[in-house]
Write a structure and sequence with these properties.
The protein is built from 7 helices and 11 strands. By secondary structure, the protein is α/β, with parallel strands linked by helices. The chain has a single domain, classed as DHBP synthase (Alpha-Beta Complex). It has a 6-stranded mixed sheet with strand order 7-4-6-5-10-11, with helices on one face. Strands 1-9-2-3-8 form a 5-stranded mixed sheet, with helices on both faces. The longest helix is centred in the first third of the chain and has 12 residues.
């Protein structure tokens, strides 16, 4: 059975957002647009939902899952410490394609950290995605809406063609920017360390 694709009307996005909220609260998994590609969204505090997400992607247990949050203030819900270097990066590059890896609070599920005790967070540059997160009043997992190792989708239809029968809802917000994935910087041990160079070059971070 194919999963329904619900188009987000920019004039009345709450209609689609209500459906998304119902699915997420019930422990389901949704496909939704981010600032880079379409992502797989689940409640990061629901172990069954996160387990379903891993199953859909065929993802290994030691691979962490980053979260999208609506603004920088929400980072403190997940990070046990935010040092001055992290604060500067958050102020300069959030919202935007920068994922920061923090030391996770003890309550954060090990499935999200890949067993490493750290959690990746990002405030997306896409205003529509931030609207959705604000409407939900919670963070969402943000791994690409694909099977692990396969291309990341830039449209709802591309995501649906691959995993449409396995998720509970697909939100169509139009074509995403695509291009390079977010740059990932580890700020969990004081001095920032670039783990993956992406949309933001390392030289900009050093500056």
């Amino acid at each position: 059975m194919r999963t329904p694709i619900v188009e987000i009307d920019p004039a009345r996005p709450e209609n689609a957002f209500f459906r998304c909220r119902d699915v997420v609260r019930a422990g389901g998994v949704v496909v939704y647009p981010t600032d880079t590609f379409y992502g797989l969204g689940a409640d990061p505090k629901n172990a069954a939902a996160v387990g379903k997400l891993f199953s859909i992607k065929g993802r290994q247990a030691d691979q962490p899952i980053l979260l999208l949050i609506k603004d920088a203030s929400e980072a403190r819900d997940w990070a046990s410490e935010i040092n001055p270097a992290a604060e500067r990066l958050m102020k300069k590059f959030w919202p935007g394609p920068l994922t920061l890896v923090f030391k996770a609070k003890p309550k954060v599920m090990a499935e999200l950290t890949g067993g490493a005790g750290t959690i990746g967070l990002r405030v997306p540059g896409n205003a529509l995605t931030r609207q959705l997160l604000a409407f939900l009043g919670a963070a969402l997992t943000a791994t690409s809406a694909n099977i692990s190792g396969r291309p990341s989708p830039c449209t709802a239809q591309e995501a649906s063609d691959v995993i449409g029968g396995m998720v509970d809802l697909v939100l169509d917000g139009g074509r995403t920017a695509g291009g390079k994935a977010s740059t990932v910087v580890d700020v969990s041990a004081g001095r920032p360390r670039v783990i993956r160079e992406g949309a933001i070059p390392s030289r900009e971070l050093l500056d």
